[in-house]
Amino acid sequence: MKELLRRYGHTLTWIFVALTAFWLLVLVILPQLYLLEESFRLYLPLADIGGPKDVYTLANYRSAFEQPTEWKFWLPFAWKPIILPFEAPIRMQVFVHTLLYSTVTTVITLILCYPVAFYLAKVANPRNVPLLFVGLLVPMWVSEILRAFAWFIILAFKGPLNMALVNMGIIESPIRWITGFNSVTFGLIYVYLLFMLLPIYNAIQSLDTNQMEAAKDLGASSWRTHWRVIIPHSKPGIASGCVMVFMLAAGSILVPTLLASTQSRWFTEIIQQAMFESQDWNTGSAYAFMLLVTCTVFVIGMMRVFRVKLSDIAR
Amino acid sequence: MNTSKSNWLFNFYIFIFLLYMLLPLAVMGGAALNDSRFPSVYPWVGFTDRWFIELFQDTRMWEAFRNTILVAIAVVIISVPIGTAAAILINSLAGKTRTVLYALMVAPILTPGAVIGISTLLFWNKFGVAAGLHLSALGQASYISAFVMLMVLARLQSFDRGLEEAALDLGANYNQVVRRILLPHLYPALGAGAAIAFFQSIENFNTTLFTRGTYDTLTVYVFSKVRSGITPTINALALILIVVTLVIMLYFEFARRRREKAAQARAVTREETAKAEAIGRDQPQAAFPPTQ
């Protein structure tokens, strides 16, 4: 602070502080606190606001645990649900499915991206890398909704994928891809893949190639070099990619709306329902806060597991 | 590191991966040219440009387009000064204060867009500010400022503070230090930050959906089109976006190559005098977006 005053004087320092304070207080912290406060209040007609019914309550959160129904549980990549032998609250079922499939998406994108990131950073001829990146980044710059829309076309019952597979004789009759959580998972993986690729690429790229050479010279196999040298070095990138993909997937609205089947609902749809259909912003904010807590827990969990700092994840 | 057989497998995997990234876009773009009412490339009915004509005649699309650009400009105007100020501020701090402030600043990046949208809507509604594009701009700026902050902060790491000291010692006033010393060093980061802010804003859907009120932006327009009955006009829009993106990216890639070549040519002419210096300075750098 003193440092700033000495370099830029009172007026400029005051401007820097004011701009930052406006951002953090007015745009970030106060809205979130207000969201939290509203989530503990009831959705009341105007006349009752400030009256005896206007109290703090857990009713909005409790509503997430109401209406127990039969649970049709979808295992990853299953074509039929398992009917669990107990009932569960309908919104909790959606919540658990959302967490499960966000995690599945995160794990699959990690497995798909790590070899590519390694290839781009250490194997490919550096002259070709920029052109490869042009190819990889075009989908990134074409917006999220269009990436999801592309899969909507591809996975359609009479769409190109089914037609191609049938014509090649791989399958006899078209597959209904938009079943359970299959299409949502395909969509989420494609749409958020690059948020995994780029941080891991950056992390592996910063590894000194001599370290890999040294491991090899000392007799380590290729696998062992990856496991003991490259992956430990790229931990911050992996953590960063996982956090981003999980958060984007769990909070995705576009992909589930476009690609969900009748049986697969996403937690953001529950939030939208409360906000737009029931116009109950209090319950909506309670559900939104649950989503926020989930993502925060995931971030903290990743920081613990990978022993990285927040400044490694977001930079 | 690898035997030739596993290398072959590896290259094959990269090829498949690229195909996986690009084929969906080709399918989507191709469907824009197919004369079939449902967007598809198969069966191929025949070449048509009518989806483009229909798209250009859609006044709602043009309005959404104008709104998108307006919001994006507003976001740039809000988030670039905020991000820059925040980066300068945090760069001068150390220890616990820095850690806490840094966490607060990057938290919006790790927050789902829907949560940002709902909290912005509720908060401003409390003060009687109704939903609309102005709230979309504020909501988007709350996390886009963090991207600008990170980019400017990275640039500040290579800033020689001695220059500021020297300017002050030589009698410059504070405004001159910022205008003549600090800002010129930050210009590349500010330009890149503004570009990222602009494109992030155009892309945004989740925050906009909750704050927009009754206004459309391009993403919301596409969303409602897709929901209400799909026509290949969306594919026409997609194809235009793909082509524009590709042209811009290739332009920058070739500009980079030209610069690289020019740098090499310069290096050759100066070879005797400053060999090492010339090669070290003009390292190629691809234009990567930030982590989000």
Shape of chain B: globular
Q: Could you tell me the mean pLDDT of chain A? A: 90
The CATH class of chain A is identified as Mainly Alpha
CATH superfamily label of chain B:
MetI-like
Largest interface: A-B, 104 and 101 residues
Number of domains of chain B: 1
Instruction: Give the H and E element order of chain A.
Output: HHEEHHHHHHHHHHHH
Major β-sheet annotation of chain B: none
Helix content of chain A: 55-70%
Total helix count of chain B?
12
**CATH architectural group of chain A:** Orthogonal Bundle
Structure write-up:
The complex is a heterodimer of chains A (315) and B (292). Chain A has 315 residues and is mainly alpha-helical. Chain A has a single domain, classed as MetI-like (MetI-like fold, Orthogonal Bundle). Chain A has helices at residues 2-39, 59-62, 90-123, 129-141, 144-154, 160-167, 182-205, 209-217, 222-233, 235-250, 254-259, 267-277, 281-306, 310-313; strands spanning 68-73, 82-89. Chain A has a two-stranded antiparallel ribbon with strand order 1-2. In chain A, a hairpin with an 8-residue loop joins strand 1 and strand 2 (82-89). In chain A, helix 8 (209-217) runs antiparallel to helix 9 and helix 12 packs antiparallel against helix 13 (281-306). Chain A starts with a helix and ends with a helix. Chain B has 292 residues and is mainly alpha-helical. Chain B has one domain (32-281): Orthogonal Bundle (MetI-like fold). Chain B contains 12 helices and no strands. In chain B, helix 6 (133-156) crosses helix 8 (174-203). Chain B is globular and about 75 Å long. Residues 278-292 of chain B have low confidence and may be disordered. The interface between A and B is large, with 104 and 101 residues.
